[in-house]
Amino acid sequence: MFLQNIQFFENSLKNSDIDNIINNMVNNNDIRLNDIVTLLETKDIQHLGIVGNYLREHLYGKTVTFINNLILNYTNVCITYCKFCAFYRPPNHYESYTVSKEEVLNRIIFAKSNFNIKQVLFQGGHNPKLNIEYYEEIFKTITDKCPDVAIHGLSASEIDMISKVNRSSTVEVLQRLKESGLTTLPGAGAEILDDEVKKAISPLKISSDTWLRIMEEAHKQDIKSSATMMYGTVETVEQRARHLLKILELQRKTNGFMAFIPWSFEPNKTEIQDKGVVNYPLGGFELLKMISVSRIIFNGLIDHLQSSWLTNGVGMAQLAIFHGSDDFGGTLIGEEVVSATGARSTELLASNIINSIKSMNFIPAERNNKYEIIKRY
């Protein structure tokens, strides 16, 4: 059995119920809803953390990766009005903006010259005035002028918006964007893959099934993606567990998710906080539990797990490494979505990440868009 093969576990872990669940998940790949709920409800995060850390170390040893990355939030115009978002502005609002194609290129060239970025994370609001040609021209220009900068862009919900503006299928949109230079898709727009939750926090956004369908369409076109979960709004623990199962089921079908990124909701300056629904973020305890449980559930299926420093801070991201995450995520230059909450500074350079990883006696390694290591420090 998995735990019985490790002397450290035999001496350290005493919770037989948790042990049995973990053994069944890891040895038999038997992932059941009730078992996920049990793991997510336990207070024994040290128990889970030891397992998560072992699984991470078995795969990656002391190496922790990151990517030099530019965040480019190309528009804040949005007509989905999500209650958890402090970033969006309705059309014609005095604070609304859309970045010109020339400015997009200028920002990327500047970031490439000054920070040697390997990826641009290209995301924004659901802007009904932007047709697919806007994105095609930008992506083709980026690919032409900065061919070694990968485009990690456009959530499933943005793909859906483009298809509506363009009156075409999401399959066609993905195909045209790939031909224009799109490399991979971020996992945004998933939040919690449960339509009861979506109805409460983002009723105008795509459904859970639509998110999953678009991700499957992308994977079938060999467009790899991340999978995400934003937890800590109105969802139950069981709804979180169902979200994880849906990601798991699609990964078994397509093997298209490169990484899983759980992050906690930041309520500051959002409608959800204004109405008193959620006043505070869940914090580090739930993050560490989520990291460990995700590593156990996705063991052998989704290789990489990000530590999500953006909404939890660098200190918690360091602790997350000891609970199963192997990737620090990206350097953040120019991020505007989380920063709109005012919760914390959202800029972090490679030197900060390298020092944070080294301070834990791990080995920092820069990766590319496909999680291939290109430099160790």
Provide a descriptive summary of the structure in words.
The protein is an alpha/beta fold and 377 residues long. Helix 4 crosses helix 13 (284-297), helix 7 crosses helix 10 (208-220) and helix 10 packs parallel to helix 11. Mean pLDDT is 90; it is low at 7-13 and 335-344. It starts with 6 loop residues before the first helix and ends with a strand. The protein has one domain: TIM Barrel (Alpha-Beta Barrel). The strands form 3 sheets. The protein has a 4-stranded mixed β-sheet with strand order 9-1-10-11, covered by helices on one side. A hairpin with a 5-residue loop joins strand 10 (363-367) and strand 11. The longest helix has 18 residues, at 237-254. The chain has 16 helices and 11 strands. The protein is globular.
Provide tags for this entry.
single chain, 377 residues, alpha/beta, TIM Barrel, four-stranded parallel sheet, 16 helices
Question: What is the CATH top level name?
Answer: Alpha Beta
CATH topology value = TIM Barrel
What would you say the CATH architecture is?
Answer: Alpha-Beta Barrel
Low-confidence stretches: 7-13, 335-344
Beta-strand percentage? 5-15%
List the helices and strands and how they pair.
Layout: H1 7-12, H2 16-28, H3 33-41, H4 45-60, E1 63-67, E2 69-73, H5 101-115, E3 119-123, H6 132-145, E4 150-153, H7 156-166, H8 170-180, E5 182-184, H9 195-201, H10 208-220, E6 225-231, H11 237-254, E7 257-264, H12 271-274, H13 284-297, E8 304-305, H14 309-312, H15 314-321, E9 327-330, H16 350-358, E10 363-367, E11 373-376
Parallel strand pairs: 1-9, 1-10, 2-3, 3-4, 4-5, 6-7, 7-8
Antiparallel strand pairs: 10-11
Helix pairs in contact: 3-11, 4-13, 5-6, 6-8, 7-8, 7-10, 10-11
